[in-house]
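Note on ligand handling. Small-molecule inputs were canonicalized before submission; formal charges were left as drawn, and no protonation-state enumeration was performed. Where a ligand contained multiple stereocentres, the stereochemistry in the source SMILES was retained. For zinc ion, this procedure yielded the string shown in the input block below.
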Amino acid sequence: MPELPEVQTTVNGLNRLAKGLIVEDVWTDYDSKHYHGSDTIKDPEFFSSFRESIVGRKILGAERRAKNILINLEARNSGQKDGSNDSGKLPAQTILIHMKMTGHMMIGEYEFDPKKSRDPWTPAARASDALRDPFNRFIHLVFTLSDGKENKPRKQLVLSDMRKFAKVTLLSTAAAHESAHLEDIGPEPLDPSFTFDRFAERLRLKPVGKIKTTLMDKSIIAGIGNIYSDEALWRAGINPEERVKDVSDKDLKNLYEAVRAVLSRGIDFGGDSMSDYRNIHGERGKFQEQHKAYRKTGQPCSKPKCTGTIRRKVVAGRSAHFCDVHQKLQSKRG
Ligand SMILES: [Zn+2]
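Structure output:
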């Protein structure tokens, strides 16, 4: 699942390539069979009002909150489309996209074949090869964008989503952060205001929680999933099953630094593409080449002078990868 660095990479791409463009149309083949929320485009009626609300609006930019992409659209005059003199202003709106397990967004030139009932959207002949990566072919949502000028080639902003778990909805920009989709999310770990004291205070809300599970709890801290929790715990030398209350202040301080370092590196390397994630151009990120623990089961630990081996254990239903020497539980240290 895309985590904070992957979602940030996509948001950065949207701000480079989609900012200022106008939504000309939107298409989807998600339907209520893939439904998992009361107000998402998987509800055909919701999709119809979604389409009505966004077509004709300009993209002001994108931002990230936890693992959610927020695409902000400008306010528009309600009479704009039919040229009437209605001076009512429709408020600014925000498209919220959570890519979930296998979703990723790309921008390029695509063609639609109405004769194909399955996967009707494919990259145009002049589109880049990266868009033809087999992981990029599960196109279930397409925004057609233009710069508003006549006869300019249009671009498509697409969501490839093999498992069809993604969530897409529309919020008023003013109330987006207070909406049920975002309200119970903890602080952003890369925010300048996220100090060590804040980090410790958040984790200690769950003193008997296992440290890996608590790090991945979005109500405690935003945006950390399986990959970056494993990598941060490896760096800090903490066992994923250690209870929060048993982690020393020194180790917790190391973990704070490690969390911020691995997330920043994840962004610097363009995200992690060990699984489905691809960037806005359909290309792989490179953070998977930097893993020290995640999916390194059976390999020697790469920490200098450490003689350990990376082990895998299921912790609260998720795979934890850790070194059996420098990440021992406190109670088993000699
Ligand atoms: Zn080690």
